[in-house]
Structure formats: C-alpha cells, structure tokens
Automatic annotation (TrEMBL):
SMART domains: PKS_ER. InterPro entries: ADH-like_C, ADH-like_N, ADH_Zn_CS, Cyt_c-like_dom, ER, GroES-like_sf, MycoS_dep_FDH, NAD(P)-bd_dom_sf. Its cofactor is Zn(2+). Signal peptide: none annotated. Keywords: Heme, Iron, Metal-binding, Oxidoreductase, Zinc. It holds the Pfam family ADH_zinc_N. GO terms for molecular function: electron transfer activity; heme binding; oxidoreductase activity; zinc ion binding. Belongs to the zinc-containing alcohol dehydrogenase family. Residues 25-205 form the Cytochrome c domain. CDD domains: Zn_ADH_class_III. It comes from the Bacteria. PROSITE patterns: ADH_ZINC, CYTC. This is S-(Hydroxymethyl)mycothiol dehydrogenase.
Length: 361
C-alpha cells in the first residue's frame, strides 16, 4: 500500500519549489523504499528547477542522500531492511558492453525504479537523477543503494551521492592525479573543493585553486590547496604557468563547465597534460578551439561523469578514510536545514554562501 510522505516539488520552470504530499508505492521487483535521513542541496537540483536538464516537470528534487532501507521488493538480495545506505544514480546493469568489458563505471544502461512516485491526484513525478530524495521516503532501484559504515553521520555520507564523489573522482579516477603532480582546479564550489581533496589524497605536490571569490579560495586552502588565484583580478593561465615553472599544470580540472573556463583549463595545462571537465555545461553552450592547438599540445581532454566512480567500490572507501580522520568530509557541510528551507538554500547557493546545505529528516 502506497505511503503518504512530504517531498519537495519543482512544479515548473523557474517556479519556486514547494512541499507537497507525495505517494510512495510499495517496492516492486528489484526496488527498495528508503527512509531518507539526509540529502544535500546540489547545484544539479537547481538545474532541474531551472529546466536545464529536461522539461519533464514536475520534478521530485534531491539526490545527494543517505538513509535506511525500509523495505525491498522481490529478488533483492544485496540489501535488506535496516541497512544504512548512500543513494547513487549509477546502478550498473552488469550486462552492457561496458560492464562486460570490466568497466562498470562507464555502464551504458544504468537503471532506476520502474514505478513512479506521484502526487495525491495521480500526477507522476520525475525524480531528480532517478532518486528524488528531498522526501521523508523515496523509491529507488535496489542497485542505487550502496551500503556504508552506519556509524558515519548521514549528512556527511549523503554528499558522496553526487558532488563530493564527482570532485574526488575527477582527480583520482578521471584525471589520474599522481604523486608529485601539479594540479589546478578552476571553480571552488563543492565539486571543485572535492577535486582539491582528491588531488591531496593522490599526493599532488602543488594544488592551485582558482576562483573569483576570495571566500571560496580561503576554503580551498583549508581543503588542501597550496596556492590560490583570484581569476577576477589575475589571468589564471599566466598565474598557473608562473607557479609551475612556466610549463603549466599536469592536470587541470574545470569544475565550472563554461566555455571560458574550459579554454583556461586547456591553455593552463602542460604539454601532454590532462584537462578534466567535471562542471556541467548547459545545452546552449558551445566551444571553439584551434584544432592545431588540440593536435599540437597532445595529452588528454576528458569528461568526468560522476567522477567515473563505481559506488560499490568508492563510497565505502571514502567513508572509511573519513572515519579514520584521513579526509574531512564534514567540512563540506556548511549548514543543516529542514525540508521547508530548500528554496532559501538555493538562494544561498547562488550567492556563494555555502558549500553544501543539507536537509536532515
């Protein structure tokens, strides 16, 4: 029997979000109902609200979440009621050509729950990234649930579900940052700071944080950046080259996702260096680069989708590192808020006042 819970709905493009009663069906085969304990307010949720992802309104927002499995459907064996899990939006299929080649982090057929959650009048909701976790409970595919140490704070664990994993993975998995490398990170919001943390974990000798906001640069230093550049007042390409002996960084991570920041990343890397795009562009953006420069500089131009993570491998590892005191994931949690405060959290995000607001239930 469907349960009535509260959830945050984006009713239409650029309309204020509102809290509505939603119906969560019993889990079907391969599905699970999760009682949400915490969910981060991610910029991707704002993209959904603004119509930047698609126009399948109304959306049930929220995806950066952790909670406890309440019930599971037929055939579910990997999780059980009572398990503490982080929700992910890459439930790998195990059967596609990427999975069969041993590259499940590139799965081409990730799946979500088959059933839809609805409003009380029967209107079907589109869950953000197939999760929809700004709600007391949510319905997901069982493969979207990754078990982690239940002793970790739910507010901390949930952030691995998107932004923190995307940034750390951009450095470790996509960028392949190694010991002694020079790394530049352009854009020091939650994802960019996570890329700083990932570079620090990898043993980078120089981590250059670039942003237009001195507050964010100060935070990046606390996360492990060795140098900072305010690109509002200083040419970041010249500054990065100067800090790297005139050569450029081995890996440059664009955590903004705009044509101008991508060009900065492209020209701020060393010959044969790597550019990683982890910031999410909007559909109308285009990029123009001289093809001779693309050819002549060599190296690699990569996109990082979810930090090229494998949740079953990466989430427990990062929680363990946090529990051991080797990384401070709690530093990403600026504030905890209630479900009625999501619209205000979007405003704070837009103003650059927070790394993450986290809804707690």
């Amino acid at each position: 029997m469907a349960q009535e819970v509260r959830g945050v709905i984006a009713p239409g493009k650029n309309e204020p979000v509102r809290v509505e009663t939603i119906l969560v069906p019993d889990p079907g085969p391969g599905e699970a109902v999760v009682k949400v304990q915490a969910c981060g307010v991610c910029h991707t949720d704002l993209h959904y609200k603004q119509g930047g992802i698609n126009d399948e309104f109304p959306f049930l927002l929220g995806h950066e979440a952790s909670g406890v499995v309440e019930s599971v459907g037929a055939g579910v064996t990997e999780i059980a009621p009572g398990d503490f899990v982080v929700l992910n939006w890459r439930a790998v299929c195990g059967q596609c050509r990427a999975c069969r080649r041993g590259r499940p982090q590139y799965c081409f057929d990730t799946h979500n729950a088959e059933q839809r959650m609805t409003l009380k009048d029967g209107t079907e909701l589109t869950p953000a990234l197939g999760i929809g976790a700004f709600a007391d409970k949510t319905l997901v595919a069982a493969g979207q649930c990754t078990k982690v140490d239940p002793e970790v704070s739910p507010a901390v664990a949930g952030l691995l579900g998107c932004g923190v994993m995307a940034g750390i993975g951009a450095a470790l998995n996509t960028g392949g940052v190694g010991r002694g490398d020079a790394v530049a990170v352009i854009g020091c919001g939650g994802v960019g700071d996570a890329a700083v943390v990932g570079s620090y974990l990898a043993g980078a000798s120089k981590i250059i944080a670039v942003d237009v906001d001195d507050r964010k640069l100060t935070t990046a230093r606390s996360m492990g950046a060795t140098h900072t550049v305010n690109s509002r007042t200083t040419d970041p390409v010249e500054a990065i080259r100067e800090l790297t002996g005139g050569f450029g960084a081995d890996v440059v991570i664009d955590a903004v996702g705009r044509p101008e920041t991508y060009r900065q990343a492209f020209y701020a890397r060393d010959l044969a260096g790597t550019v990683v795009l982890v910031g999410v562009p909007t559909p109308e953006m285009t990029l123009e680069l001289p093809l001779l420069d693309v050819f002549g500089r060599g190296g690699a131009l990569k996109s990082s989708w979810y930090g090229d993570c494998l949740p079953s491998r990466d989430f427990p590892m990062l929680v363990d590192l946090h529990q051991q005191g080797r990384i401070d994931l709690a530093a990403f949690v600026t504030e905890t808020i209630g479900i009625d405060d999501v619209e205000k959290a979007f405003e704070r995000m837009h103003a650059g006042d927070v790394l993450r607001s986290v809804v707690t239930f």
